[in-house]
Amino acid sequence: MMMTNTEAPHDWLSTIEGHYCMRRLSLALLIGLGLSSMPYQVWAQLPDQKPIRHSTPATCNQNWDAIKQQLEKAALTIDKRHVADGYQLLGHNLQKCKQLDAALSAYRRGQTFHASSHSTYQIAKILVKQQKFTQALSVYRQGQLIAGNTKGSALELEALTYDALAEALVQEGNLDRAIAMYRYAIQINAQNDMRWYNLGRVYIQQKRYQQAFTAFRQVEELRDSTSLTEQQLDARAYYRVASNIDNPSPQRAVFLKKSIELDPDLEGAYFILGEHYFEDKQWDLALATYRRFLELSPDNTVVHQNMGSLLVRKGDLGNAFSHFRTLIQLDQREVRKGLAIDSAAYVLLAGTLRYQHKPADAVKAYQQALALTPEDIGTHAQLGAYLSELGRLDEAIVYLKQAHKLINRPTPKTPLFIGSSYAMPERVTSLLADTLAKHGRPHDALRILRQAQANSLTGPLTITTLSKVLSQVGHHQEARKILQSVYPTKTQFEYADPPISNEARLIAKHGEIYFELQQYDKALQHYDEALQLEPKFPLAHYHRGDVLRQLGHFDQAIEAYQTSLRLRSYSLDVTHKTYNGLGWSLFERKQVETAISAFKQAIRLNPQNSAAHYGLGKALLTQQQSAKAIQHLQTAFELNPRHPGLSEDLQKAKDQLNA
């Protein structure tokens, strides 16, 4: 369980990253925020447009001329700025649909109502896409004036114009031309450190590391050339090169080592090198590097967290506990003392052991925490939830009942665990009820949930758990009615593309409940019902694929998953899970090559998808690619060793490799 920190010690990039984060807020979001603040009278006169997130035939098959006509009509009666916003959104949507000339026309028409730097930069970006660089440069000049960049000299304003063009070229992947633009801007004004920094980043993308070093060396000279030696400046330039190389890369470690060799006290280099070794699973080197870092910067909470995680991996739980205890003491949010510090450290130790799939030690650490602070609601609830996850339901109920008892006292004590979401009344109640239902005691679960309702505990978690238990005991109509309070049927989920009615979402959610209860026929019935209402509901198609796969209907599952992918869910989580389900269904149908492709897509979108790693390893094993299979099977095992059959397949791959 390693934490990383983009604001590492002496990370001089934080202000740069903040600057770019603000500049790269999506245009659709900015427009949406602006339009949403309009009064109703204005809204009513503007076209009913929503920002397009994914271009599909459905979203792009619109009557664009009618939208323009409505905007022109609105211009006669409302503030021209609102009309300009409408044209800006129209330009964005046309751009998404790859209608670039029409988008240009929309942005330009919007400019006649109100000139904004956003529209100006969008016009310039389209011209760059069309490789009309001279025109783009002219528009960027206008953008600098509209944005109010008038404090600098005329030469610096011209240099900023070339900077803007270079940035657009980078986004288009035209790196050679971008470098030429940055270098031309540097000829105009070489004293701008950001310009050198951006040039160095482009060289990194081209793997031209020596040129990147030279550019970053200029950054250091411009920022801190008086207090540092030449050797220290070189060290910091190598550090910048390494910081901008994506991990994992052997080159990253090479430049970090050079940096440390030139300046053994450059703590940021140790931080990133430790992270590199950790991600490369070189545990001993990671430990040694982090230890040196802590000699230079002993109060860094992130490195204490990472050290604790590494030491747990090595089986050194005593020293891991010490680092977690130091972390608690250093955390400025924490005000605890004495035994409470030790208790919180044991909880962090338990969480790390849990993440690393060491259940016996994790349970023991939770129990050690409770021995010190027996009234810690959050720790009781966490341990109960973990035991339930392990299938140790009798033990889980004991701890969850104690948490429930503590939280329902007239004046419950403040939870002791950091960020104790487990100690929220709704979560404790739902965990206890869910565990009782799993244990075959649904009526006890209902009693607790009904009491929670009577006490006005009616949040989404309580309602969903109540609906699940009602479904389990056969009260299907009441279960659906209860869910309606979470999904009111008259509203829509506005930011789906296209919007999905809450009635369909309600039915699909009920399908998820039946899936969890392993009542697959009822789950399938609900997904079919949801899709009758909303045929373009990607989440419902994905879940339907899961049900069909469980029922062994692999051809139909493949079709459902592929439909979900064609509809392009807005959720990355849904997409990577869909590729995983597709991969397993294809594998079952002996379509191994296509399955491998699907698993790779799932892993690309989420490298922590253990099921996809397992599926890919299993598929590679059938092709006698034992070494590659072992890599993915081992990763799956580290992420989740409880996959049925995984240990056997991993051993089979090792036997095949050694045969």
Automatic annotation (TrEMBL):
TPR repeats lie at residues 159-192, 193-226, 267-300, 301-334, 343-376, 504-537, 538-571, 576-609, 610-643. SUPFAM superfamilies: TPR-like (SSF48452). It comes from the Bacteria. PANTHER family: CELLULOSE SYNTHASE OPERON PROTEIN C, TPR REPEAT-CONTAINING PROTEIN MJ0263. InterPro entries: TPR-4, TPR-like_helical_dom_sf, TPR_rpt, Ycf3/AcsC/BcsC/TPR_MFPF. PROSITE patterns: TPR (PS50005), TPR_REGION (PS50293). Keywords: Repeat, TPR repeat. The keyword Repeat applies. The keyword RNA-binding does not apply. Signal peptide: none annotated. This is Tetratricopeptide repeat-containing protein. It comes from Acaryochloris marina (strain MBIC 11017).
